[in-house]
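Q: What would this chain look like folded?
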Amino acid sequence: MTSQTISKAAAFCCGLFAVALSAPALAAAPRLLEHQVPLALDGSGTAWILTSTALVLMMTLPGLALFYGGMVRKKNLIATIAHSTAAMAIVTVLWFVAGYALSFGTINGAANNFVGGLQALFLNGVGTHTAHALTPGLPEFLWTGYQLTFAIITPALIAGAFAERIKFSASVLFFTLWHLIVYAPICHQVWGGGWMGELGVLDFAGGAVVHVNAGVAGLVCAVVLGPRHGWGRDNMAPHNLAFTAIGTGLLFVGWMGFNGGSAAGANEIAAVAVFNTLLAPAAAAVGWITVEWTLKKKPTLLGLLTGVVAGLVAITPAAGFVDAKGAFLIGLISGPIAYAGAVWLKHKLKYDDSLDAFGVHGVAGIAGALLTGVFANAAINPAAEGATVLKQAIGLSGAMVWSAAGTFMVLMICKYTVGLRVQTEAEIEGLDYSEHGEALP
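A: My prediction, written as structure tokens:
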């Protein structure tokens, strides 16, 4: 990307921002926007979602950064952590500019089937006394911030598929375009009043929106970029499983806010979701390690940690819709299924998903979403009434097609502008030094 192109892009962004600031009718809206209602403050719920927002942000930094950072080779640790950090910075700015509007806005008073409206660009009209119609007890700024943390972690998860070989400039452009073209529309289609929500697809905290979306995108990235230099020949074992273990712990704790906060209040559904989020990953770790121990004769720490994450992924769409027995079975089933996706399928089809973004998040997310249709219990949550595997499958199919097509388009834009992969010499040297000019001693 030339300096002239960057200057033009910066000038355009500054001009767009100036236009937004000069629109007093939007900045100080005399009436509520179409998606808003007057705030009816739920104090306890607000306190819980404030806490949950911090917990979910911790999942990306430092949780995912350490989880992924420990699994790459030492020469790529800094570059891998930089992906999570860049995702946080880029998506936060985009969410303020347009992401929130495209995800949760409405058009002409009604939710569009595929993407939201533009009334809330730059958060125009969002005030201290407004709430989104979906969460009338929460200040809209809080709902905006909480949903932002979900938008942050989703592209950061994809980075696990292209780790150790992508240009940093390509990852920056990818995160930017992918958020607007893929994440925001799918978020709207499921949670913002779009066609999946209207169909009755259940996704309590991001099975389709976050994990299946990121997993499918990761698979497309892995195939398009091709394998790392020396893949299948060189030793590419994790350089520091202690980092990965710490990252898993931070992800696990943060997931209490990820799933528990998705109840949008301090209530009985939040309590169910938190307990299920404790139980399912434990069961998944047991399922994963049983298969691994049987087949490979060794129970590995990496297997235990990956099983925990697979269980967290699988319970995410179901957390507030199933009872404890359902959560246990979802975890127990998803562990071996994720093992098959991360170990057997990857080697069978010969694609280099560096850190198993598809094998864990995609495969476990699909399993959890489908099993939500099996175990959803209206006695736990009335919203589970009428849930079916067919509805879940239709919703998943839509999300997967949108994610795959959108991701491929974004990758092609990156390929023919800044390029995708580093040179072979730079990859052998390590991305820490070749891309960032930094290296561990």
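The beta strands are 36-38, 130-132.
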